[in-house]
Amino acid sequence: MVDGHYMDGNMLAGPMRELFAVDLTSATGRCANCGVTGPIAEMHVYQHAPGLVARCPSCEEVIMRLVRTPTSAWLDLRGAVFVQVPMPPETPAGW
Length: 95
Ligand SMILES: [Zn+2]
What we know:
By secondary structure, this protein is mainly beta. Helix content is 7%, strand content 38%. The protein has one helix and eight strands. The strands form two sheets. The chain has a five-stranded antiparallel β-sheet, with helices on one face. The site of zinc ion (ZN) has 8 residues, from loops.
């Protein structure tokens, strides 16, 4: 918890793990509004909205929204230019 209004991006680990096999809090993203690049873990996440709303720690624009319904998950990344996910080095086939 960073302050009384939002939590840091680390709280996205559980909800995002359900949707993706990798831990996206170790990923890096770029804000489409101000261009700042940083770890997803540093986003400001608001829970008192329809779903989870992650805002840029620099300009406070919405970068990501995640809504879970009983039958699906909705991920809106329109506030991000990209999300870069660290991956283990590729191993050539047959090794
Ligand atoms: Zn920004």
